[in-house]
Amino acid sequence: MDAFFQFLFKYRWIVFRRGHIGFDTPLPVYSFILLALLFLGATLFTYRKQLSMTQWEHHLPVCRLLLVILRATVFLLVLITLARPVLRVPTLLPRENIAVLLLDDSRSMTLSDEGGQQRLSAVKTFLKHSNFLAEVNKRFRVRLLKFSKKTERIDSVESLKGEGEITGLKIALDSVLTNFETEPLSSVILFTDGAENVSPEFGSIVHRFQQKGIALYTCGVGRTSMSKDIELLDANSVRTALAESILTADVTLRSDGFEGKTANLELREDGRLLQTKPVRLEGNQGVQTFKVQFAFNGTGLKQYTVSTSPFPGEVNPWNNSRGFLIQMDESKPKVLYIEGAPRWEFKFIRQALEQDKRIRLLTLLRTSSNKFYRQGIESEDALATGFPTTREELFPYQALILGSVESSFFSKEQQAMIVDFVGERGAGFMMLGGKNSFDEGKYANSPIADILPVVLGNRQTGSSYLSQPLKLGLTEHGKRHPLTQLSPEESQNETRWRQLPNVEEFNWINQVKSGAIVLATGKSDRGTAVLFAVQRFGRGRTVAFMPSDSWHWQMGMPHEDDSHEVFWRQGLRWLVSSSPSQVNVELNKSTFFRHETIQIRTIVYDSLYKYVNAATVMTTIVPPSGNPVTVPLRWSHDQEGLYTGEYEPAEPGLFKVEVSATQNDKNLGRSECHFFVSQDSLEFYNAGQNREILERLAQETGGQYYSLAQAVHLPEEMSYASHPNAVPQTLALWDMPALFLLLCTLLIAEWSLRKRVRLL
């Protein structure tokens, strides 16, 4: 198509795009306008007289109009030719300016998807066996550079090995502008797959190219999507967990070329295979997410890997695994459980949790008015007057469970404090079913109703607590939620729930709030009752569990069945898992690649969990080599209490991060986490050609994007550039074949029409 355009208009389209059309004649423009008007008048007079003498007189208006248009257009083309049309285009003088060829030498360039050839080999073949380098060298002083993490000068393309760990486009472009600051650099030609994996923000670089008038030409290499490939995009779970928890890992993958086939997701803990989950692939670059459940046991730090075995013919088998870390939480979070009167549910919940050494359960049981039976307390003064009356007393707990206790048990101040305990402190909250819970406990108009995931007030007091057998059935959300996992095996978990006895007594709820998740329901002749629901509230999370006799799950099952104990242990672990400490360090993920930038985020609170903005926050990173590195964190003005920093690991292995915060010489707390740096290369993930970013870079800097096959035309096009060193060049257009062909076409059309109306 481009060759055809050049045949018609003498020059290639890029020349027209860079220049502007004018006329190179000494005569004034008005003289050509006057000639055109005179000829138009003569044409009208001639055809009017001739047509009136023919049998086509009744078609006079149409024929006259067509003949006049044809004759006038012919004359107009003759006048345009006589006016000597030209194309004025800025041109760089030969060998007066520098052109840099910037060649990607990263590992992603070794992938074989460029016509069955390695990307880097395709670039080498093109540069060695085409006239590209010779043509560029005719017009510019050429400099060859290769880049990955850093930029280096090379003498020939044979220096390219494809061993770079990262594709640092921004680093390379910045290096070129800096190193050629004082030289007449006019163009940069970038051969790359565009797989930028260091810094995707190019705004400042583009601005510098625009300021200097340097055009960036991008030559994209490789397919934009990898055919015959399965890529694990992500695998993550919680960063910390209590031992004996059943956890869920979310695995995201993308596949192409294997539609309808089954891949096996393999989960390994410290290299030991835990389970295999078959998944059906959609293909067509579709992104799929799967949940893999597993039991977290033992102590210390665990390293998990999710992977799939490569399929025959897979182009990129190096992106088939992802990893994550989970640290055992040894903090022993405190949970406060309040009951309004002795009952079986209270006894069996305590019994299920008393052997759990990972959670400290403190119970407050009202035995009579203003008298309480305390269990699990740490000192004689703890909870001596009943439920806490101050934030300083309540906020050290990580979760609160309300059993069958009426709303009037709490003062207005205590109820408001419970709301803040969840919303501001970020603690967990659970209300259990009972004769004095939910509507039956008159919570409908209390502040506590605001934090519950269910809607109260739909039934009158005295009719909302029912005694009738009801089968608790998990919803689709409930089958996958951490709260309802009795077994890490999905099928076994559902089986165990189906085998549990009915609940006999529960609070009737049939409506939940927007944003709540219903985990279990029960069907009766009155309709469908919501029996189990959860939601987020502020920084914390809340649970509504409507049955009041889950203890039947212990008594009605064989003695070796531990479903009841597992349910309550799992429930409390989930309830406290999001409750923050005063200093909380977060990384954007738990496994990285070498030279990948790690974002460190730390949120700091005071003892009442108000944000602290004036703290001194220091991070110590201990690499596998054992030489600690200190990274100061700065307060982010975008968010209160948030301190951020960056770190780039240079070696593989396990790293430890320790963060401490102080304010006015007062220690606010410390936190630690770990991350792992893989031996694998980031280059093989998301490795398709990033054509979008290459096209944008070229367009915004005055250059153009090319495929490798199109790049043969680039040397000529580089000569026509709007650069400070460019000089204007005038190119004649009067002899374009398109003008001659159009003139001939118009004359033939006029002759044909004249013959038809018998004017010949």
Describe the structure.
It is a single chain. A 9-stranded mixed beta sheet has the order 20-19-18-21-22-28-27-26-24. Strands 7-6-3-8-9-38 form a 6-stranded mixed beta sheet. A 5-stranded mixed beta sheet has the order 11-17-16-13-14, with no helix packed on it. α3 (29-51) runs antiparallel to α4 (60-82) and α9 crosses α16 (563-576). The chain folds into 5 domains: 2-91 and 729-756, no CATH class; 98-224 and 688-720, von Willebrand factor, type A domain (Rossmann fold); 229-328, Sandwich (Immunoglobulin-like), CATH 2.60.40; 334-576, Class I glutamine amidotransferase (GATase) domain (Rossmann fold), CATH 3.40.50; 583-683, Sandwich (Immunoglobulin-like), CATH 2.60.40. With 760 residues, it is an alpha/beta fold. Helices cover 26% and strands 32% of the residues. It is elongated, with a radius of gyration of 38 Å.
